[in-house]
Amino acid sequence: MFACDAKKLRDAWKRRETEIVGIDAVPFNRFAIQFTAHSILRELNKAFVGFYGDGQPPEHLSAIATGNWGCGAFGGDKELKSLLQLMAAAEANRDVAYFTFSDRVFMQELHRVYVELITAKCDVGRLFQLIGQYADEEVRSTAGDPNLSLFEFISQQLAEEVDGE
């Protein structure tokens, strides 16, 4: 997730091989709106289309350098947006270099959840289900003021699945 081979990032003239893709961000003036099925699918599909390598073999594609897309002024939830980007990148067969812009706590939390997802062998489909479950159980049932963050909820669900085995 966080590593890439810099030697592969040069073309025949030794220039860095880069491609810049702009993905529009939707402003979310209420926390709960971004957790609707429509919003989740829209953001996931936009990220996938932006990350898709036009059919090139994955070994010929550079890592996606991304960050807190749609957060900040647009009001997006960093936890949701980071997971949607990781899901889209996984489906597009792309590595990710995720930049948290000096937010050390978020960096550690994202890495912790990523390790938990990998350890649990959680695929994109299961993560999509967990996000939907969080939306139902934590966001909608509390009128948009959840008791747990998305990362906390996912960690809790994965731990319960391990304990149940």
Automatic annotation (TrEMBL):
Gene Ontology MF terms: poly(ADP-ribose) glycohydrolase activity
InterPro entries the record matches: PARG_cat_C, Poly_GlycHdrlase
Pfam families in the record: PARG_cat_C
Domain of life assignment: Eukaryota
Domain PARG catalytic Macro: 7-106
One GO BP: nucleotide-sugar metabolic process
GO cellular component annotations of the record: cytoplasm; nucleus
Protein name: Poly(ADP-ribose) glycohydrolase
Species whose genome carries this gene: Plectus sambesii
Taxonomic lineage: Eukaryota, Metazoa, Ecdysozoa, Nematoda, Chromadorea
